[in-house]
Amino acid sequence: MYRTIICGIGMGSRETASRLLRRAAALVDKGGSLVVMHVIEGIPHRHLTELPEEFETTAIVDAEKKLASLCKEMGVPATIEVRIGVAASVLVSVAREKSADLILLSSHVTDITDYVFSSIVDKVVRHAGCSVLIDRRPDPAHEGSAPQVEDATLF
């Protein structure tokens, strides 16, 4: 069991998010802490001035509400953190800040960008100072099909 778990919830399906949250809740020690993280990335700083001022705030609040709702529905007590940045770096940084002893992530269907840029999971595994557990069960929507570009919304 683990004292502090960072559970990274990405852009996958609600089913994947629920599965990760169930696993994290089962692995956290009694009295331990579970931090459910989502990182909003992909906004080049040069474009931030072109976006409405409230874009970041709205995106953060929306993701926080969705994650809090999921945790409440599942009866899983957790701290919700949504940040903007490079997902792998933010996850590793938060794990250090919180002295986490586990980061729980889900893999996705590999596509060409993973080979060129490396995946978030690969980067976290290489740079994390704690254990990393990777849920490799594919999303049903992607099973047996070609990789698809994911929607830009959190489940």
From TrEMBL:
InterPro entries: Rossmann-like_a/b/a_fold, UspA
Alphabetized CDD domains for the sequence: USP-like
Domain UspA: residue ranges: 1-134
Family: Belongs to the universal stress protein A family.
Descriptive protein name: Universal stress protein
Organism from which the protein derives: Rhizobium redzepovicii
